[in-house]
Structure formats: C-alpha cells, structure tokens
Write a structure and sequence with these properties.
Layout: H1 3-19, E1 20-26, H2 68-81, E2 87-90, H3 105-122, E3 127-130, H4 149-157, H5 164-173, E4 176-179, E5 186-190, H6 212-225, E6 229-233, H7 252-265, E7 269-274, E8 281-286, E9 292-298, E10 320-327, E11 333-341, H8 343-347, E12 353-358, H9 359-363, H10 370-382, H11 384-394, H12 405-416, H13 420-431, H14 439-456
Parallel strand pairs: 1-2, 2-3, 5-6, 6-7, 7-9
Antiparallel strand pairs: 1-10, 4-5, 8-9, 10-11, 11-12
Helix pairs in contact: 2-3, 3-4, 4-5, 6-7, 10-11, 12-13
Bound molecules: 2-acetamido-2-deoxy-beta-D-glucopyranose (4 copies) and zinc ion (2 copies).
Length: 457
C-alpha cells in the first residue's frame, strides 16, 4: 500500500472516530457503609435485613448493597476501560436499602458526598451530569416539590459539575438543564422523576410537583425553536417493571403526562437514560401511527442487591456499568456496550470487569435508534433465542433460567407499552395467544433453537 493511500485511510478513520464518541452511564451504586465481612452472615450488612449474606466476599453479596470495595472497583474499572469519556451520566440511588432510622439527613448527604468525591477524584476533568434517585433523600422517596435543605446541600456538593443556572434551578426542585458540553445546539435535561414515584407521599396531591412538567415542556419547546437536540436523564422511569406483572412506579396521572411530554417533543429528544430498576431493559415510545419515536435505556445497577419486592423471583443482578456510543452531530445513539463483574468470580479473587455484550452485535441491528430498538423488541417477542439472550442480559447474567411464555409477556409488554392501559391490553393479547405463538410457530421456533444449540457445540 502506498503511503498516500495509507494516509487517506487514516484520515477517513479519524473522521469516523471524531464523529462517534462515547459517554458512561452509571446508576444505583447504593453504598452500604455497614458492610463488614468479619461479622456472622446475618450481620454482614444492614441492607440484608433478616436475610443471611451466605456468599459474602470482598466485592459484596446478593443480599447486601455495595461494599466500598465494589464502589471503588466500579469507578476504577470505568477509568481503565474508557478513561476519557465525553461526559458521565450518573442517575442516582447512592445510599443503602435500610430503614430510615438507620440513616438520617446527614448520613444520606455524607454518602452522596463520598460518591461524588470518588467520581471527581478518578475523573477530575470530566463533566458529570448527576440526577437524584429516590434513595438520595431523607426520608427516602419523600422528595418535595419545592426548595429544601437536602436539595440545597446536594447542589453544593455538585457545584463543580453544574453551571451557575443549573445550580439555582436544582435548589427549587432537584432538576436542571444546560447545554450539553456547553455546545450550541445540544442540551441535557435532568429530571427529578422521584416526584412522580408512587411511594412519594408528599407530592401525591400535586398536579405538577415542583412545576417540573410545565418547566420541561417550556425547555423542550424552546429547544425546538432553537433547533437543539436533547438527551433526558432521570432516575425512576415511567411504565411497568418487567420483573413484576402490572407493577408501575409512577402514579397514573404522572405516567400519562410523562408519555405526553415525550410524544409532543420527540422530534428534539434523541435519547432517554434512566435507572432505578437495577436491571438492563429499555422502553419504547410510539406515535399515533405506531411508529417508534423514542427509546428510554434503563441501565443495570452497580449494587448486586436482590430486591425484596414481593412476587419477584431471582431479583438480583451482577454489577454492571455501561458505555453509550453516540454521533456527536445528531446525538443518535449508535451503540450500547455493557461491562460487568461476575460477583462470584470476583469474590473468589478475580476482580475483572469484562465486556458483557455490544448491542449491535448481539441483536444484529445497525444502531440503537428507535427504529433499531423496535427491531430488537420484535426479535425478543418473536424469537426464543433472542428472548433468552435478552433475559440473561436483563439480570446481567445473574439469572440464567429459561424465560417462559409468562415471562416473555411481562418483558415484551413492559418494553412495548409505557401507557398502563395499553400494557394491560398487550398482556391480554399475549394471553390469548395472538402474540404470534401459534402452535406450529412455537414448534418451529423450538426446533430452530435446538438446531442452533447443536450448531454452536
Ligand atoms: C447496623 O445497624 C445497627 C443499628 O441498628 C448498628 O448497631 C450496626 O452496627 C449496623 N451494622 C451492622 C453490620 O449490622
Ligand atoms: C481502589 O481501586 C484501585 C484500582 O483497583 C486500587 O489501586 C485502590 O487500592 C483501591 N482503593 C481502595 C480504597 O480500595
Ligand atoms: C466519606 O466522607 C467523610 C466526610 O464527609 C469522610 O470522613 C469519610 O472518610 C469518607 N469515607 C470514604 C470511604 O471516603
Ligand atoms: C461466574 O463465575 C462463576 C464462578 O467462576 C461461574 O460458575 C459462572 O458460570 C460465572 N457466570 C457467568 C455468567 O459467566
Ligand atoms: Zn436503586
Ligand atoms: Zn431507585
């Protein structure tokens, strides 16, 4: 190859690389400062409640929230894997799952401060967009729709990341917006959706807590006028929990308003990034013609803590962290790469974060646009192998059991329908068997799965 030609190829590659950049998304770190291996299994950590931590090791246990060692390991793994991201999205839940009496305002603030410190120390020059989780308040989940001591104090801890205006806005209701990386034409919208959480008693009678919906509507209307492209981040997502049938997080009126907000402004919204589930999932948004218009990515948690929600089976996960690759000009999400720590293996002495999967490879799509994510969902609902693959990723390789017909309905309907009524209708259609699993088809797909398994041996 001539030198000239080589140079051309290099320039081309550089151009391509310059367009596609990446950011980290981390969520639900839930540090438990009480984690102590020297105690007996029932007293290793306060977040286990009455459950014994039978496999407790230096990196944690599925009955417990994260020991400091796991927090430290996850932030350093980010630094090793991708030391210079464009920015970091951090969607909250910093404190352990313990009764309110074991925390208090100052403990919650100290924990938020400790996590803020380690992220700042490991990524000193990197812009971080933090959002509040329902556990980043005392008492937990009771975030108010107006100024508060906790909002003020948290704003102070995040002062070095927020611009001046965000810092002020945050104090009014825990939300803010600013230009994405200070670039004209690009915007980050950070919501405090804990205001819509059904466990939040203090906002339940407000029509629009903290005026956040009308504020966000204004921000997005102005963004459209200025031809901006917008990312939305937050903690508690709308829609249903895929691991528990008909389990919503938002109160119904708030769920409807969130959906309307996205449907009205989807043209400027280029991605939504949330946490709270601790699972790896996504939510589709459609217009009135059933065309995919937006996707919400739910990233897995760092904490391996098994949920205590009644009725959820195997509700734990391996610790996960995630890179989004995006086009810096269009903000199109091009790919999603998830890394994880096999907790069992880490506790046995091999603390190695490994790549779990790359979305475009594992699901054979061109990118992570709404149209492609719709294809991913179609694959999950029609192809047993895809469903199984998705299901294992959902718990970050913790639950490797088979996702059966009921399980498929739960996951497919939660991904497809954010609207509560349409979700119930989706379940009814699945139960009636019209969801494509006619007898012949399921036999055919089972045969295909078996062939596939043999082909892989
Ligand atoms: C848990 O909380 C109790 C207070 O109820 C405290 O005495 C104890 O030290 C904490 N830590 C552990 C590991 O139990
Ligand atoms: C944090 O992790 C880094 C990298 O693995 C390690 O060098 C350091 O000793 C750890 N610090 C603590 C307090 O565990
Ligand atoms: C957490 O922050 C407090 C100060 O607020 C400090 O005393 C403590 O050492 C920190 N803990 C860790 C693990 O960094
Ligand atoms: C995690 O590690 C354990 C112990 O080495 C192993 O048995 C298990 O298969 C691993 N899980 C995955 C998903 O690789
Ligand atoms: Zn959480
Ligand atoms: Zn949460």
């Amino acid at each position: 190859m001539s030198a000239e030609r080589l140079l051309l190829i290099c320039l081309f590659l550089q151009g391509g690389l310059a367009l596609s950049r990446n950011f980290w998304h981390i969520t639900d770190l839930h540090w438990d400062p009480s984690y102590d291996l020297s105690n007996d299994p029932k007293r290793v950590c306060n977040s286990s409640g009455i459950r014994p931590a039978v496999q407790a090791g230096p990196y944690g246990d599925h009955a417990c929230d994260s020991p400091w060692n796991l927090i430290n390991s996850s932030i350093h793994a980010m630094k090793d894997i991708l030391p210079n991201p464009d920015f970091i999205v951090w969607t909250g839940d910093d404190t352990p799952h313990v009764p309110n009496q074991l925390l208090g305002e100052e403990s919650v603030l100290r924990i938020i401060g400790n996590l803020t410190d380690i992220i700042t120390e490991v990524f000193p020059g990197t812009k971080v967009y933090p959002a509040l989780g329902n556990h980043d308040y005392h008492p937990k989940s009771q975030l108010p729709g107006g100024p508060s001591y906790m909002y003020d104090q948290t704003a102070e801890k995040w002062k070095h990341w927020l611009d001046l205006e965000s810092h002020q806005t945050f104090k009014n209701g825990g939300y803010y917006t600013e230009k994405l990386l200070n670039r004209a034409g690009f915007r980050m919208l950070v919501l405090n959706t804990n205001l819509y959480y059904e466990s939040n008693k203090v906002t339940q009678n407000d029509e629009d807590p903290a005026g956040q919906f009308s504020w966000a509507d204004g921000v997005l209307t102005q963004a459209a006028a200025r031809k901006e492209k917008v990312y939305i981040i937050g903690h508690v997502p709308p829609g249903m929990f895929e691991k528990k049938r008909s389990k919503p997080w938002y109160r119904p009126q708030f769920n409807m308003r969130y959906l309307e907000l996205i449907q009205k402004h989807h043209a400027v919204i280029k991605g939504q990034f949330f946490g709270h589930h601790h699972t790896d999932a996504f939510r589709m948004f459609y217009d009135s013609n059933d065309s995919p218009i937006s996707t919400m990515f739910l990233s897995p948690a760092v904490t391996p803590w098994e949920t205590t929600l009644p009725g959820v089976k195997k509700g734990a996960n391996n610790p996960g962290i995630r890179i989004f690759e995006y086009d810096t000009q269009t903000l199109l999400v091009q790919d999603v790469v998830t890394y994880y720590l096999n907790l069992t293996r880490a506790n046995a002495g091999r603390d190695r974060w490994e790549k779990e999967y790359r979305l475009t490879e594992s699901f054979q799509v061109a990118d992570a646009s709404p149209a492609s994510m719709h294809q991913v969902l179609k694959g999950i609902s029609e192809d047993r192998c895809r469903l199984q693959q998705y299901y294992q990723f959902n718990s970050v390789n913790f639950d490797l059991s088979e996702c059966d017909k009921e399980c498929r309905a739960d996951h497919v309907c939660a991904s497809r329908e954010v609207d509560f009524h349409l979700y119930e209708r989706c379940l009814a259609i699945e139960a009636a068997g019209a969801g494509l699993s006619g007898g012949l088809l399921s036999i055919l797909s089972m045969a295909a799965s078996i062939l596939f398994l043999f082909a892989r041996q």
